[in-house]
Every structure is written in structure tokens, then in C-alpha cells.
Specification:
This protein has about 200 residues and is of the alpha/beta class. It has a six-stranded mixed beta sheet. It has helices at about 35-40, 55-60, 60-70, 80, 85-90, 160-170, 190-195; strands spanning about 1-10, 15-20, 25, 45-50, 70-75, 105, 110-115, 115-125, 130-135, 140-145, 145, 150, 180-185, 190. The chain has one domain: Metallo-beta-lactamase, Chain A (4-Layer Sandwich). Helix content is about 25%, strand content about 30%. Strand 13 and strand 14 (about 190) form a beta hairpin. The longest helix has 12 residues, at about 160-170. It is globular, with a radius of gyration of 16 Å.
Length: about 200
């Protein structure tokens, strides 16, 4: 599995490009940076996927969709957030390009295909109502659910701390300990490392 990581936006949001057999998917494009666009040259882009609809994870949607002719995938519960990304950006003092509505609404149990790879969609609310994670091939693209030594914030509209902990407990912690966690911010980690040392997961 070929995973390219691009820290983008003032929030250093990790955008991931997963490539396989001439195809690619883009996960959480906070902006349409030149290096990100260059990584897609020569690949058929199967989908643009937002794990959730905070502006630092989806402000690049419009440009990427125009450049690639691909489809946008998002859980329906985050559609109101997606439609408010300009207002979100204003809260933090920067301009944000509005995003088109999704072509496909993701649901728990769906599969995302790219080349020879298949990822399972799991609904993991708590950071936002429609947050999803993608699981497959010894990895999980966890968005802002789980970080190295921390978890997603729940003080923004739609956040719920107890719901986030339930999502981590039911959707992430049952994965094998060696599963690589590609988080929305910061370095990659593993499920085992976080289960044993992340202070927010004590007792789960």
C-alpha cells in the first residue's frame, strides 16, 4: 500500500493519498496544495473522502473535484458542517473555498475501493456527528478520532465526549494492536501503543 502524507493548512492537517494499481483516493484534503496535486498525476482518482466536515479537512474539495473529475464521499450527518465551511474558516481567520455537496453518502459497512485495496467504512461519531474511519490492510485512517497520546476535541458544535470514547472503544480498539493509525494531525501511531499509553483511553 502506497500512502502519501501531506500536512496542509495552518492546522497542519494530514491529507492522505492512497495509491494502488494506477488508482488513488484522497482523504481529507484541507487544501489543494501543488505537491498533493502532483502526487495524483498519472493516477485515476476514485474518490475524494472527508472523514468529517471541519474546514481544515475539506477546503480542498472543490479544486480537487474539478481537477480529477472524481466523486466526493462523506457521511450524511456531517452535511450541515460541510455547507458551513466558509463560516468555519472565518472563525479562525482565513478564507475557505465552499465545497460541493457529496456525490455519495457513506454509511457504516460500506467499502471504498482503490486499485487492489478495499477499506471498510466505520461510523465513529463524537468529534462530529458524521465522522467515519477507513479500516483495511493493517491500517486505519482515523481522522480526528484518535491521535498519538490524545483524542479528538469535543468542544465544537456536534461534539460529544462520551460518544467519542464509545466510538474509540467499539470501532478502533478491537483492531489488532499492530494496526497503524493514520491520524488527522500529528504522527502515525498504532492501536496497541494508544491502548496501552494514551491517558484518555485508560479503563477502556
Amino acid at each position: 500500500m502506497d500512502v502519501q502524507t501531506f500536512p496542509l493548512t495552518p492546522f497542519m492537517t494530514n491529507c492522505y493519498v492512497v495509491r494502488s494499481a494506477g488508482e488513488a483516493i484522497v482523504i481529507d484534503p484541507g487544501e489543494a496544495a501543488p505537491l498533493l496535486l502532483a502526487s495524483l498525476e498519472g493516477y485515476r482518482v476514485r474518490a475524494i473522502i472527508n472523514t468529517h466536515a471541519h474546514c481544515d479537512h475539506c477546503a480542498g474539495n472543490a479544486v480537487l473535484l474539478e481537477r480529477t473529475g472524481s466523486e466526493l464521499l462523506l457521511h450524511e450527518a456531517d452535511l450541515p458542517l460541510l455547507r458551513s465551511i466558509q463560516q468555519q474558516g472565518m472563525m479562525f481567520g482565513f478564507l475557505t473555498v465552499p465545497s460541493p455537496d457529496p456525490h455519495v453518502f457513506l454509511e457504516a459497512g460500506d467499502e471504498v475501493h482503490v486499485g487492489e485495496l478495499t477499506f471498510e467504512v466505520r461510523h465513529a461519531p463524537g468529534h462530529t456527528p458524521g465522522h467515519v474511519v477507513l479500516v483495511g490492510h493493517g491500517s486505519v485512517f482515523a481522522g480526528d478520532v484518535l491521535f498519538q497520546g490524545s483524542i479528538g476535541r469535543t468542544d465544537l458544535p456536534g461534539g460529544d465526549y462520551q460518544q467519542l470514547l464509545r466510538s474509540i472503544q467499539t470501532q478502533l480498539l478491537p483492531l489488532p494492536g499492530e494496526t497503524v493509525v493514520y491520524s488527522g494531525h500529528g504522527p502515525a501511531t498504532t492501536i496497541g501503543e494508544e491502548h496501552s499509553s494514551n491517558p484518555f483511553l485508560a479503563g477502556l
